[in-house]
Description:
Elements: H1 3-11, E1 18-24, E2 32-40, E3 43-51, H2 60-80, H3 86-89, E4 103-104, E5 110-115, E6 120-121, H4 129-145, H5 164-177, H6 187-195, H7 197-200, H8 202-208, E7 215-217, E8 226-229, E9 235-238, E10 245-247, H9 249-260, H10 278-291, H11 297-301, H12 303-324, H13 336-353, H14 355-376
Antiparallel strand pairs: 1-2, 2-3, 3-5, 4-5, 6-8, 7-10, 8-9
Helix pairs in contact: 4-9, 4-10, 5-12, 9-10, 9-12, 10-14, 12-13
Amino acid sequence: MKQALLREVAAAFEIPGRWLSSARFGSGHINDTILALFDEDGRTTRWVQQRINRSVFHEPEKVMENVARVTEHQRHALLLKGTTDIERRALRLVPARSGGYSFVDPEGGHWRTYHFIEGASSQDVILSPADARVAAAAFGRFQEQLADLPGPRLHETIPRFHHARARFEALLDAARADAHGRLRECRAELDFLLAHETVVDRLLALHEKGILPERITHNDTKLNNVLLDDRTGEALCVIDLDTVMPGLALYDFGDLVRSATSPTAEDERDLSKVALRPEMFAALVEGYLEGAHFLLPAERAELAFSGLLITLVIGMRFLTDHLRGDLYFRIHHPGHNLERCRTQLRLVASMEGQSERMQAIVEAATARASVSLASRGP
């Protein structure tokens, strides 16, 4: 990226001091992320600038409206609790000099700037139950901070993102079209998914009946979207807010289960290594209940199932993309999305084999959480 453009972007926001340099930063795969350095009275300050990926987010203005409302509400919630280090516990957008929080460059790029949270970093992989608990508690608290966000309803930045029925129908369409002649090599995976159609509508049906309420959800609940204190390891701040939108709280917890409970990578070829680890699941449940006190009994009752559903949905998405010619997910070799699909489906099978144990873990953790809340008093 040309320095002239980066300098123009840096100058477009109300950042005090003199611009020194800008360079790529972080390991994100969607947006372009830049670290800008400024000199303010002899002190170097750091700022995170991002260009929103319009191929993924077609209406960046709506993304920014959501992010502004969410971060402002978080900061207000922290202020009401008497939190003293709010600057480290919620992102803060920097105003653009032209008004609002966005700058559109001459090439049509849509930019924003955040203050940099010092003394904090993220890690890409959950290595232990302690990591799992920290991540789950952070996302539970994040949802709780936004549980009373006043209307209007947030924009759906990626419509029907975790909508299981919509993902199932998209898979059927891709299989019928078989535009690249790949169906024959993945017939077993398609049959596995077709056999699970009976569970696709479970959470949606409960929502339509009013049993599961709509919440504000993050929709990308990976550990690397939580900033951890470099000194203490404490979870400070949830980041990457572009997919924050209306959804079911269970979607976020389910994706945590999918991404954290297997010891393997998302594209592991040796499927014998893919399995849900009960101790990791238990840590996720404990952490999430620690943070998300607002959950209804009906939501807690579906925690174990949510992991299976979201893993199934992600498996559908990988297979759909494989059949369509790898248009959405970045691949590193032919058949990569099919490998990813197979890993998800093996994890689903592992969850099914341990479903009773998972449910028992949830029930025991729920009972402990209830006792803990009761002991705190009103």
